[in-house]
Amino acid sequence: MSLRPFLDTDSAQVLELNSAAVPAVNDLGADDLAALIIASHSAIVVVADAEPDTVLGFAILFAAGADYASENYRYFSGRARTFLYVDRIVVAAGHRGRGLGARLYAAVFDTARALPADVVFCEVNLRPANPESLAFHGRLGFTEIGQQSTKNDTVVVSLLSAVVPKVRSASGR
After folding, report:
1. pTM for the structure as a whole
2. Strands 42-48, 84-91: parallel, antiparallel or unpaired by DSSP?
3. Which DSSP state fits 141?
4. CA–CA separation, 56 vs 90, rounded Å?
5. In which region does residue 22 sit, left (phi positive, over 0), alpha (psi from -120 to 50) or beta (all else)?
6. Beta-bridge partners for 63
7. CA–CA separation, 127 vs 130, rounded Å?
8. Considering 79, 86, 140, 159, which has the largest number of Cβ atoms within 10 A of its Cβ?
9. At what angle do helices 30-39 and 11-21 cross, to 10 degrees?
10. Nearest to 123 by CA among 173, 163, 86
11. How far apart are the C-alpha atoms of 167 and 44, rounded to whole Å?
């Protein structure tokens, strides 16, 4: 498996993966995805080495100071001057549990170090519940710093933070 920057030609596959992950992430249309990519700091995809055009997962990242109206991004913006925010991270259902999420997060932490940013933020749904994602983020060192109700009180999220290690560890972080 390899990581690479998001390409415009990845859009259809990213939209399909994103739609399959709803409600863990909010649904996106093509215009929404294009706007996210333009506003983001970066977007990365994980692909199979044998099929480099097949997207198996992706992450969309925002740095501090972005012009982004997300309720969760605004929450984090009020808590740190420099940070990297994971707007969404998705791995294809048939490829979960194979280390792809950890590989994506290794790239997230590398990106944060390059900014430089001392902290990575993200959120995970509590309602509707996403216990697998909470456990995964806990294994990566994320801890809850708050909770918030979003989307007209239809979603409650755990707001998570992880300190960016100074150097990449042998485990990929």
Report:
1. 0.91
2. unpaired
3. T
4. 8
5. beta
6. 84
7. 8
8. 86
9. 100
10. 86
11. 20
pLDDT in tens, 62-120: 999 999 989 999 999 999 999 999 999 999 988 888 889 999 999 999 999 999 999 99
- How far is it, in rounded angstroms, from Cα 127 to Cα 24? 9
Summarize pLDDT for 114-167 with one digit per residue, the tens: 999 999 999 999 999 899 999 999 999 999 999 999 888 888 999 999 999 887
Tokens of 63: 């740095």
Residue 106 in tokens: 């290794």
* Range list of β-strands (E), 77-131: 84-91, 119-127
| Token representation of residue 23 | 């409600």
CA distance 160 to 112: 15
Q: Please provide the DSSP assignment of 18-73 as one string.
A: HHHHTTTS----HHHHHHHHHHSSEEEEEEETTEEEEEEEEEEEEETT-----HHH
- Letter for the amino acid at 127? R
Handedness of CA 25, 28, 32, 38 (dihedral sign): positive
